[in-house]
Amino acid sequence: MLESLKMNTFYTRSQEAGLHIMHIALNKQATSQIILLVGKSMTQKSLYRTLVRVQDLTAEKADQLIWLRARVHTSRAKGKQCFLVLRQQQFNVQALVAVGDRASKQMVKFAANITKESIVDVEAAVRKVEQKIESCSQQDVELHIERVSIFVISQAEARLPLQLEDAVRPDGDGEEEGRATVNQDTKLDNRVIDLRTTTSQAIFRLQSGVCQLFRDTLTQKGFVEIQTPKIISAASEGGANVFTVSYFKTSAYLAQSPQLYKQMCICADFDKVFCVGPVFRAEDSNTHRHLTEFVGLDIEMAFNYHYHEVIDSITDTMVQIFKGLRDNFQTEIQTVNKQFPSEPFKFLEPTLRLEYTEAVAMLHEAGVEMGDEDDLSTPNEKLLGRLVKEKYDTDFYVLDKYPLAVRPFYTMPDPNNPKYSNSYDMFMRGEEILSGAQRIHDAQLLTDRATHHQIDLEKIKAYIDSFRYGAPPHGGGGIGLERVCMLYLGLHNVRQTSMFPRDPKRLTP
Amino acid sequence: MLESLKMNTFYTRSQEAGLHIMHIALNKQATSQIILLVGKSMTQKSLYRTLVRVQDLTAEKADQLIWLRARVHTSRAKGKQCFLVLRQQQFNVQALVAVGDRASKQMVKFAANITKESIVDVEAAVRKVEQKIESCSQQDVELHIERVSIFVISQAEARLPLQLEDAVRPDGDGEEEGRATVNQDTKLDNRVIDLRTTTSQAIFRLQSGVCQLFRDTLTQKGFVEIQTPKIISAASEGGANVFTVSYFKTSAYLAQSPQLYKQMCICADFDKVFCVGPVFRAEDSNTHRHLTEFVGLDIEMAFNYHYHEVIDSITDTMVQIFKGLRDNFQTEIQTVNKQFPSEPFKFLEPTLRLEYTEAVAMLHEAGVEMGDEDDLSTPNEKLLGRLVKEKYDTDFYVLDKYPLAVRPFYTMPDPNNPKYSNSYDMFMRGEEILSGAQRIHDAQLLTDRATHHQIDLEKIKAYIDSFRYGAPPHGGGGIGLERVCMLYLGLHNVRQTSMFPRDPKRLTP
Question: Which of A464, A483, A65 is nearest to A289 (CA)?
């Protein structure tokens, strides 16, 4: 079935491993070696080679003979030599095949013909170099492939849909020399290759870190992780922007947030809960910050005396995330900055909390015309972010006490001023990353507010009933994971921080 | 709006907290006290009371005066006394209000009238008891509510849809005395109350632990957490059992597993990945172990020489989970055992691995008639589990090398025997909890196998194309979270370990 691969290769399968091995047959030495690999002895694990990691190739390993599995990042033949750059994730190392005692001219030629992005096993000697190799992550050594030892584990097609070096080039860089950059749709259409770039590897390792920091911080605070259903029977917030699912002989919806279920868990005595999971919004918004499916980091907790206890828990969690990223993900941050330069993310301790009326006053002062109880437009949010940064030197703050009219029906009104509410948004670099509030925990008040919002009470019966059998005062919020990563790194499109983004126009890959 | 609550109560709102406080007006002392609570001074956090946790009420706290917020679990008036049991999650303590110097007859009467499941704040003295209180988790002390200090924070409706003590009663227990148990549908219909039982609290705290142990173990092994899309453009495995979503002007599907995306991440050099998220199956199966939406704990990893490296990683992860549960969740396990007795879960190190042919031979020996390459029926799986337990004394094992014909198209065939495959299931107490395999990483072989399975190649183009640009040998598996929890605890219905289960007949709450 692999007949199509023509390059003096022969194809074998290891007898035990089910591992497909294509071998570039260079000479008899190589052939005898491959037999070792595919024979029955394969089951004896002691015969397995130890593969080193590229990141471990330092001067300390000089003059050792090692085995390595890596991708061919680039290859450049130059007379009797072939320079390969071998890559593992964000790390790479230079390797040299040169005509001499140990390698034939033919071998150099074959090495040069291995397609980029193929995965190879090589046996090589680690050699110190006199001049640092600036173009590689491993600058102090290179590999000398002296024995006839290159095996192609998986061969890439010759024509790549995009070049990795183009995909990581900063916008405008090298334009004069006619060097290409790759547009976003091409990247996303070929995401499997685009995700191999140092930038993508760094972004998604950092994203994994955000989730871990979020959970670890909350677990330490005594929160319990919950799993909430995504298929729900009724569109909770009036039915707008919700995806419909055909469910056997009836219809169902995809949850726009886990909020109602988080609240039920509070009514069910779990006291403090969090969940991490997909959130679905059937919004036909084609902007840099909207996705139809994103990952929600959700929090809900009972509080004792004041909903600011909830704000404090959430802001402290965010601060722990920011600190964890700053302290443990510097390499990733700097890798992303190379392609997308941005200022380091700034935050205060304790977190700045402004009231909505203060924010409106700041905007008025800056010449913005808006009513006291109008919602903030996206440009005004951005402007406010700049004003706050100038005045307080922080990229993260809380805006508290939103006008009641612009918030969902389940938001607790401010007891002091019925035009406002006990609700808040949180912002990073002037963009909203969290929306939250104290929730109404009294079934009758909830019924009144839902009626005021003209919501069909029959559809939210199960939700309202949850509060009939004793419910503690509580609040929470939902954080958009992709937005947090985008804004922390100073990126400009949420599709960069979603592995396989979904928007009104994109459903693949 | 709370006019309906008639019991000599008055209703106030705290000025700052938005916290609804209903106060049982007993006498003037109480009235003066509530004013403190609702006045402007509320913003001064120093005035907030410190609330103790029920679990901290031990003999060491004897004779201290404390404040507590808890639910009224039961209340029993007896002449001039009222005994309350106050509950926080799985912990509870007895509290006594007695007519005397500090409490009036009226107060005792009011305390006795507080509806079960209401949330109250009480001020009380902690008193050592001479005889242990067997019916409470806090056996060495009781609370004496001596001052006029009971505030109802949230009042439950008088008629509960189910009684917590009925919901935790073991089947058959107390039947002779006419004591009720609660059937599963009633529990699930009123899940918010059912989740308050000690059994439910224990189950879902343990479930939270499973997720944490799964992630922590894999993170330590160098795995990266990924987030995969749930809305997908094509039903990957032939289109059966898939939910359809209307997606703007087109149709989409809900992912039946993250497997294709996990694999793409391997092709994208993430090397070892895991994810935790919802999985959707439009199967009209009304059994004890099927849900239409469940939580998948998914693993995928590149390996070096043999797919057993993958099996070893997964079984070690499971063993770490079993050990973590055994060592850190004994209270939860014993709590669940009180209602649902079961044998402790047994496992071996290293994990037992049987080949499919061995299993078939064991079944043949036990009198089962089946072909060598037939799939295992559910009863045969259960029987095999019993045979394995008898012979090897383990509740957890791996069944390796399934017949190729019964596995999905992307399963790597066994290179030694084309009738078998490099695939495996894992079992707990005789039920499948994981299905996995080495995956085909060669685009041509994948195309051949898809064609053999009569799958429309056009629909899986993005998937197959992922392997065209170099892909390492890899494998993985998907674990059902609810099944792991059910089987570890020896429960008999997966709905018990899903907070808000979804099946063909249940979409609410």
Answer: A483
Query: Using CB atoms and an 8 Å cut-off, which of residues 416-445 of chain A contact chain B?
Result: 416, 422, 438, 441-442, 444-445
Beta strand ranges found along A139-225 (DSSP E) = 141-144, 150-154, 224-225
Mutation target among B250, B269, B440 for the A interface, most CBs of A within 10 A: B269
A230 touches chain B (CB under 8 A): yes
Q: Phi and psi at residue B459, in whole multiples of 5°? A: -75, -25
Q: Which of A110, A174, A124, A501 is nearest to A339 (CA)?
A: A174
Question: Taking CB atoms and an 8 Å limit, are A264 and B215 in contact across chains?
Answer: no
Are B507 and A282 inside 8 Å of each other by CB?
no
Give the pLDDT of chain B (509 residues) as one tens digit per residue: 232 222 223 333 333 333 333 333 333 333 333 323 332 233 334 446 899 999 999 999 999 999 999 999 999 998 899 999 999 999 999 999 998 877 788 888 889 999 999 999 999 999 999 999 999 999 999 999 976 678 899 999 999 999 999 999 997 777 677 778 899 999 999 999 999 999 999 999 999 999 999 999 999 999 999 999 999 998 766 567 999 999 999 999 999 999 999 999 999 999 999 999 999 999 999 999 999 999 999 999 999 999 999 999 999 999 999 999 999 999 999 999 999 999 999 999 999 999 999 999 999 999 999 999 999 999 999 999 999 999 999 999 999 999 999 999 999 999 989 999 999 999 999 999 999 999 999 999 999 999 999 988 988 888 899 999 999 999 999 999 999 999 999 999 999 999 999 999 999 88
Q: Could you give the CA distance from residue B473 to residue B304 in angstroms, rounded to a whole number? A: 7
CATH topology of domain B198-497: BirA Bifunctional Protein; domain 2 (3.30.930)
Contacts of A215 in chain B (CB under 8 A): 212, 215
Residues of A within 8 A of B211 (CB-CB) are 225
Please, which residues 336-395 of chain B have a Cβ atom closer than 8 Å to chain A? none
What does the block give as tokens for A36? 């070792």
| Distance between CA atoms of residues B131 and B128, nearest Å | 9
Q: Do B499 and A228 touch (CB under 8 A)?
A: yes
Contact yes or no for B296/B461 (Cβ under 8 A) = no
Q: Do domains A2-154 and A198-497 have the same CATH topology?
A: no
For residues A476 and A494, what is the distance between their CA atoms, to the nearest angstrom? 24
Closest Cβ opposite residue B277 in set A160, A277, A502:
A277
> ipTM for the complex?
0.91
* Phi, then psi, of A308 in degrees rounded to 5: -65, -20
Tens digit of each residue's pLDDT (9 = 90 or more) over A2-49: 322 222 233 333 333 333 333 333 333 333 333 233 322 233 344 468
Whether chain B has a CB inside 8 Å of the CB on A289: the answer is no
Predicted model pTM: 0.92
Q: Do A15 and B444 touch (CB under 8 A)?
A: no
Residues of B with active-site annotation = 281, 283, 289-290, 432, 435, 483
Tokens of A308: 């600011």
Task: Please list every residue in chain B whose beta carbon sits closer than 8 Å to the beta carbon of residue A16.
Answer: 306, 415-416
Cβ <8 Å between B231 and A502? yes
Instruction: Using a CB–CB cutoff of 8 Å, tell me whether B231 touches chain A.
Output: yes
Q: CATH topology for B2-154?
A: OB fold (Dihydrolipoamide Acetyltransferase, E2P) (2.40.50)
Mutate to test the interface with A, among B227, B461, B495 (most CBs of A within 10 A): B227
Q: How far apart are CA B256 and CA B234, in angstroms?
A: 11
Residues 6+ apart with CB under 8 A from A207: A481, A482, A485, A497, B227
Domain ranges in chain B are: 2-154, 164-194, 198-497
Interface probe, candidates A2, A11, A118, A154, chain B, greatest B C-beta count within 10 A: A154
Q: Which of A82, A133, A78, A143 is nearest to A111 (CA)?
A: A82
